[in-house]
Amino acid sequence: MSNECEIAIAGTGWGIYHYFLIILSGLLSLAEASTSLTVPIVAPFLLCEFKLNKDQATMPVATSSFGMAVGAFLFGSISDTAGRKKSIAVSTGIVFCASAGLSFAQTNFLINLSVFVLGLG
């Protein structure tokens, strides 16, 4: 096998699309990391707002971690079969929908469900 492909890639260099994709991936990682860090901070406020016990208030933290574990396996296989472009678009849509659902959630179940779906993305 020859090195023609590597030579062509080295000759063309990086384009605007590659830089855009790296910036977009970085921003998405930052958004997901900030939501992962925000959930434990909000747990004491959930305790007071919804009159929950400590187990119920810390459940979104565990739910988020479980969602991330499931999402890693799920989107790993999706990106292998469908490609990274499609899986990034689907993951972005899931994160958007889960964030919107979390902002309007009024019950403990909906909060946990939204945090789980947010972890999936």
Automatic annotation (TrEMBL):
It is found in: Membrane. One of its GO terms (cellular component) is membrane. It comes from the Eukaryota. The keyword Acyltransferase does not apply. PROSITE patterns: MFS (PS50850). GO terms for molecular function: transmembrane transporter activity. Residues 18-121 form the Major facilitator superfamily (MFS) profile domain. Keywords: Membrane, Transmembrane, Transmembrane helix, Transport. The keyword rRNA processing does not apply. It is a multi-pass membrane protein. The chain crosses the membrane at residues 20-45, 57-76, 88-111. PANTHER family: MAJOR FACILITATOR-TYPE TRANSPORTER HXNZ-RELATED, SYNAPTIC VESICLE GLYCOPROTEIN 2. This is Niacin/nicotinamide transporter NaiP. It comes from Dinoponera quadriceps. The gene is LOC106744162.
